[in-house]
């Protein structure tokens, strides 16, 4: 293994999909390990974090972890009740997520581990677990630095821009790109726009597009929500997730070098995911873009030192 | 581009205007311009803020007749701002109309729990903005300074 890398432990959105037809892509929900030497930072604690926790225990080397939670929907926290390092003494885990203060973060995390939903509470965790709310600044974990920003998703949801091993990595698990863009288009065709209103709406649209891609502009690596096909997005617009076509186009516009299509719909079997990847490549060919686009697959390791 | 707190619908300085104040919190400069253009001619003092922190700093010491709030703000979420606003003694009942690009039930629920007056989807038309402003401020057409008796 390289000294600095990222590894996908869960790439699905919404719910785990442990089906034979899905195994080349993987069935666990959101979890990415970012490692630099002995510093391990984990993006999201979906069901993928369970196997990562087991691996960290087996490895028996790292004792301090940072977990960045984007928000508290189940597919992003459901692995924590089974995360072995939390139940082990001599481990220190800092958990970051949206909230007014540390207490709110703790409350959001621990609520899922209460009766009647779960037999043991977070009070049974033996690790030194601390909670922090990063809304007022960035997070340092050894040589890794992570800064949160808000995404377009129900409630307060963060994306994170990370600096690690000289690279900029942006993690955006849940984000509906270009939602306002489409709403403006609907207004623009109304026949009774007032003088100057058309121009203002066009300016708003242009600005919105620019703001949407700002958090990942120039990123070396972008891991981004690409949950739906165009047909499914047409039915699920306003659910807080992106169509992969928008994800690919926005990544190109933002000058991203490498894109990983992530938070994949759990109903999509490997065959559908293959089609999605082929179509993403078609878009890139047609645009003459140099962006390298991949599907995030469980177990995939990206060397951050090359 | 409109500087924070400087979007006004009249030429006079707001401190001496005595007009009802309308605060707009939206990180989009184009959106602030839209509010400004839409309320031109109404006797209100329009103040635009592109960040939640700047808006809350202003609201600590002012009591506007109405707040238009976009909850999708990149740095500090508008729902966080709304919670902070409601914790201020002078803003527990300040009328807040959410005008946002986020059309999610969860956001509507949180915003309603925080006592908003309405939750509307962007972009509004100019006539809709004027109707809301008039409803909450009672503002009629403004009279230019040189036309006053």
List keywords for this structure.
heterodimer; A: 306 residues; alpha/beta; Metallo-beta-lactamase, Chain A; seven-stranded mixed sheet; 8 helices; B: 149 residues; Rossmann fold; 5 helices
Description of the structure:
The complex is a heterodimer of chains A (306) and B (149). With 306 residues, chain A is of the alpha/beta class. Chain A has one domain: Metallo-beta-lactamase, Chain A (4-Layer Sandwich), CATH 3.60.15. Helices cover 28% and strands 24% of the residues of chain A. Chain A is built from eight helices and 14 strands. Chain A has helices at residues 48-59, 74-77, 102-110, 179-188, 197-213, 230-236, 244-253, 270-287; strands at 4-10, 31-36, 39-43, 64-68, 92-96, 128-132, 139-141, 144-150, 158-164, 167-172, 221-225, 258-262, 292-295, 301-303. In chain A, helix 3 (102-110) links the parallel strand 5 (92-96) and strand 6 (128-132). Chain A starts with a strand and ends with a strand. Chain B starts with 20 loop residues before the first strand and ends in a 12-residue tail after the last helix. A five-stranded parallel β-sheet of chain B has the order 2-1-3-4-5, with helices on both faces. In chain B, helix 3 links the parallel strand 3 and strand 4. Chain B has one domain: Response regulator (Rossmann fold), CATH 3.40.50. Chain B has five helices and five strands. The longest helix of chain B has 12 residues, at 126-137. Residues 6-16 and 145-149 of chain B have low confidence and may be disordered. Chain B is 34% helix and 15% strand. Chain B has helices at 29-39, 52-60, 78-87, 105-113, 126-137; strands at 21-25, 45-49, 66-69, 96-100, 118-121. Chain B is of the alpha/beta class. The chains are: A alpha/beta (306), B alpha/beta (149).
């Amino acid at each position: 293994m390289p000294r600095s890398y990222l590894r996908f432990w869960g790439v699905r959105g919404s719910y785990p999909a442990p089906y034979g037809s899905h195994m080349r892509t993987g069935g666990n929900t959101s979890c990415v390990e970012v490692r630099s030497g002995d510093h391990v930072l984990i993006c999201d604690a979906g069901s993928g974090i369970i196997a990562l926790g087991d691996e960290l225990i087996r490895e028996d080397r790292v004792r301090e972890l940072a977990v960045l939670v984007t928000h508290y929907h189940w597919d992003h926290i459901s692995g924590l009740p089974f995360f072995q390092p939390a139940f082990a003494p001599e481990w220190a885990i800092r958990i970051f997520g949206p909230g007014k203060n540390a207490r709110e973060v703790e409350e959001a995390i621990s609520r899922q581990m209460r009766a009647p939903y779960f037999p043991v509470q977070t009070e049974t965790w033996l690790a030194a677990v601390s909670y922090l709310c990063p809304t007022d600044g960035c997070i340092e974990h050894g040589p890794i630095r992570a800064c949160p920003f808000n995404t377009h998703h129900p409630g307060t949801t963060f994306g994170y821009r990370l600096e690690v091993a000289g690279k900029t990595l942006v993690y955006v698990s849940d984000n509906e790109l270009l939602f306002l863009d489409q709403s403006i288009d609907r207004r623009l065709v109304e026949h009774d726009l007032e003088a100057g209103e058309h121009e203002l709406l066009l300016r708003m649209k242009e600005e919105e597009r620019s703001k949407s891609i700002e958090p990942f502009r120039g990123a070396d690596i972008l891991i981004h929500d690409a949950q739906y096909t165009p047909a499914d997005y047409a039915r699920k617009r306003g659910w807080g997730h992106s169509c992969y076509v928008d994800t690919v186009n926005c990544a190109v516009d933002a000058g991203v070098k490498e894109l990983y299509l992530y938070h994949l719909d759990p109903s999509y079997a490997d065959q559908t995911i293959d089609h999605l990847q082929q179509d993403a490549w078609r878009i890139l060919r047609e645009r003459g873009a140099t962006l390298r686009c991949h599907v995030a697959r469980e177990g995939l390791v990206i060397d951050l030192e090359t | 581009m409109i500087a924070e707190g400087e979007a006004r619908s009249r030429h006079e300085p707001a401190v001496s205007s005595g007009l009802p104040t309308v605060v707009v919190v939206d990180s989009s400069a184009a959106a602030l311009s839209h509010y400004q253009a839409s309320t031109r001619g109404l006797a209100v003092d329009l103040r635009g803020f592109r960040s939640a922190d700047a808006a809350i700093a202003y609201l600590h010491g002012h009591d506007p007749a109405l707040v238009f709030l976009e909850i999708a703000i990149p740095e500090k979420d508008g729902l966080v701002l709304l919670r902070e606003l409601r914790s201020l003694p002078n803003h527990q009942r300040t009328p807040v109309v959410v005008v946002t690009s986020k059309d999610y039930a969860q956001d509507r629920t949180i915003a309603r729990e925080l006592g908003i007056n309405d939750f509307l989807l962007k972009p509004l038309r100019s006539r809709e903005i004027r109707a809301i402003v008039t409803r909450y401020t009672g503002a009629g057409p403004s009279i230019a300074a040189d036309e006053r008796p």
